[in-house]
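User: Can you predict the 3D structure for this chain?
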Amino acid sequence: MKFPEKIPIERIEDYHTHYLGKTSDGFQFWGYTTFVWTVLPKDIKGDWQDYRNEYVLLHLFDKEGNYIETKHWLGGSANQVNDMTLYSKLDTMVEELGEIEFSDIEIKMFQTTIDGERFGLIPHEESGFIELQPNSTIAFSEPWDGSYDT
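Assistant: Here is the predicted structure, written as structure tokens:
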């Protein structure tokens, strides 16, 4: 499968791509919350929330869509942090970028490792999708128009 060099991503307010846009100097960003299981879900004994680590991520890209860095915050397990705290932290991280405009972006595939886990927009050759990892939260595919599947 031939994947595009750049992937347009549509901003959808109050959904997976709500925190998407550009800074005043033209750099692009994508912020969201996600999670990583500390054990496979099938191996969970007891409360599942003890085995789910909650993250806040803010990926940064240059004007051409090249990956620069990821700022992240591990809030703790799902039992230790709630959505309100996660989104408050995400709001703060985006505010620290300065003047921004929420908008669609166009970026290149990327990946980074945080706490031993792989995060990023990663191609899946077999399915033909480019998936937001971990957890394949959303996936992009032809016609590569910015829309995505959940």
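Helices lie at 83-95. Residues 19 and 89 are 12 Å apart (CA to CA).
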